[in-house]
Design a protein that fits this description.
7% strand, mainly alpha, two-stranded antiparallel sheet, 10 helices
């Protein structure tokens, strides 16, 4: 029994699907996070962090603090904590395979998803930022440079590849290997270490 609540309907549905498939609440929350990285990136991202509380049936509450960490070399980019945090929570409290938790977000990124009303509204408020970022522009602007409307399909193939590495290799798929190398190269090219 449970309820899945999210700012974006595809993420809420993914979380509800986990609950109806005998997944734990941690499975559902992690699934919604990875889905939101694709379908509502204004609220969740692989480069983010957070805090989650897990309440067990016996009343014990465990806090997971995976906020971003300051870079050691005084760089411009913080060290993301979200992927490691959700991975750790899942190892301790997950009932479903990790691959099942990450797969919905990966699939939406790779094959596309309809932009929700909520995302369309947030994009409209940040359209100047979207236009200045080549990756965001490629995902959320049409051929004429206008924002995609609610219901239009968006996809992010690069995010899909990153989520694939996370699905296959757990947190190591993000913090080491090709994804980590791309992040470090980008931060170095922007003049700040990570």
């Amino acid at each position: 029994l449970g309820v899945a609540v999210a700012d974006e309907p595809l993420a809420a549905r993914a979380g509800a699907s986990v609950l109806t498939s005998s997944g734990s609440s941690v499975d559902a929350v992690a699934t919604m996070f990875f889905t939101l990285t694709t379908t509502y990136p204004v609220a969740a991202g692989l480069g983010s962090g957070g805090i989650c509380l897990v309440s067990e049936a016996n009343g014990q509450v465990t806090e997971f603090d995976f906020l971003t960490k300051a870079p050691q070399r005084a760089g411009a980019y913080a060290l993301p904590g979200a992927v490691k945090g959700f991975s750790t929570m899942h190892k301790l409290y997950g009932a479903m395979p990790w691959q099942r938790v990450v797969a919905p977000g990966e699939a939406y990124a790779a094959t596309g998803f309809p932009i929700s009303q909520a995302l369309a509204a947030r994009l409209a408020g940040a359209q100047n930022i979207v236009r200045l970022d080549a990756t965001l522009a490629a995902e959320f602007l049409d051929q004429s440079g206008n924002l995609l409307a609610a219901g239009a399909e968006a996809k992010n193939l690069q995010l899909g590849l990153s989520l694939s590495q996370i699905r296959l290799n757990n947190a190591d798929g993000f913090y080491s290997g090709p994804v980590a190398n791309q992040i470090v190269a980008y931060s170095d090219a922007q003049g700040g270490g990570i």
